[in-house]
Amino acid sequence: MFAKTFGAGVLGLNGVIFSIEVDISNGLPCMEIVGLPDTAVRESKERVRAAIRNAGYEFPCRRITINLAPADQKKDGSGLDLPIAIGILVASGQLSAARLEECVLIGELSLDAKVRGANGVLPMAIKCRQTGIRQLILPQENFAEARIVDTVEVVAAESLQSAIAVLAGQPREATKIDAVKSVGSVGATVLPGDDFRDVQGQRAAKRALEIAAAGGHNLLMTGSPGAGKTMLARRISTILPPMTKDEALEVSKIYSVAGLLGPMTGLIEQRPFRAPHHTVSAAAMAGGGRIPRPGEVTLAHHGVLFLDELTEFPRQVLEVLRQPIEDGQVTVARVNSTYTYPSRFMLVLAMNPCPCGYSGDPLRECSCTRAEIKRYLRRISGPLMDRIDLHINVPRLRYEEMAGEQKAEASSAIAERVAAARMRQAERLCAVGVFCNAQMNHRQLKQQCQLNREAQELLRQAFEKMKLNARAYDRIIKVAQTIADLAGQQKIAYEHIAEAIQLRIAVSENENGN
Which residue among 121, 139, 293, 317 sits deepest, i.e. has the most Cβ atoms within 10 Å of its Cβ? Predict the structure, then answer.
């Protein structure tokens, strides 16, 4: 006998609907799965066999052939266990085939017939909506993320028996997963109580962080150990504007595919903050693996990627950042296919000025030679430094600043100014399809950014004196436009260019080896 059910998988960040065709015929008892299954799919034979028996049904002792269509597309993961089991029961005459054509089944089966969660359910649910699938039966763990998608009836199944009851149209108990959790800032580095009011002093650094957040610019902080670089970076997420619904859905898809959405977790509402350790590999940073998965640059999409102790990262790992920074996406090529993941993030870097960490420190003498400092700074390539918009020094705090009673400005106050600046950018840039100043290309910059005569003359002098290249020219104007947006002004004035150049000087000095 023959039966067909529908399952789902993920290709990159997009859901894919698979047809599971089951044929049971006379012959020696065996079970073959064809259609480019990976190891996890091939091993489903034993899980499905035990689950069917422990659910109280008979596993047919005949020749079972299972085809996963389309046959030329790789299938991975354990989420096809449930549709395979249902297909076997229907083909063996133990279940009715009614309603199978309008339903997609997702879930891994345990040996006792319980249904376990799968990765990538959110993009699968979106694909169901696009293809007109009416019902989606999946594990309780994935119910919250799938329920984000409207127009598709999402049903949570605890076990194989409960999935069968749903297909049979039997009345079922209402699911108890009504409280859908939203996720805050993704990444364990940011604590709920983080606030800029806890940072004493560092007015110049806070100003640079505000500019970076308002325009989505990349930032490098240099300073002595203990000056507060990491403390400042961890609070950037507290001043970033909230994500739009489309951004939240895109980020949630990424975390669903990566398996980082916890049980009963719905839409991610706050921007991601990723802070990988310096032992991270190039594949973990850019994405990859035998079956490519999103890397840190994609997990930081629409959020912040923070690299602390920058010079400790292998050069190969840092170089993979160049394409994502420039293009807003990363491409992972494999023999069978090529995967493209989005990677529009704000890059925040922190490093010491020299190996001992005290070069330029007014209170502690540096023990490094000039040659050692040059070798240390050369760990970061010129092309990568060229892509950093803001470069600031974070000085050691004086005792008076640490012990002072003066209250620092709260994150909420800074966030209001950042949100107002982002609103001005959205109104100005909505016609060209970008959302912040850092995302503008050269043509859009020419169309959208207007400099008065004094600003143009200052930029010309800086371009010639500092020997800037075309990328530096564009990035100075983008930063100046953000400063103007924070000031509520339409045109870029002299003081806006002056501040943007000041924040670029250290970059040019490092590039020239000074």
Answer: 121
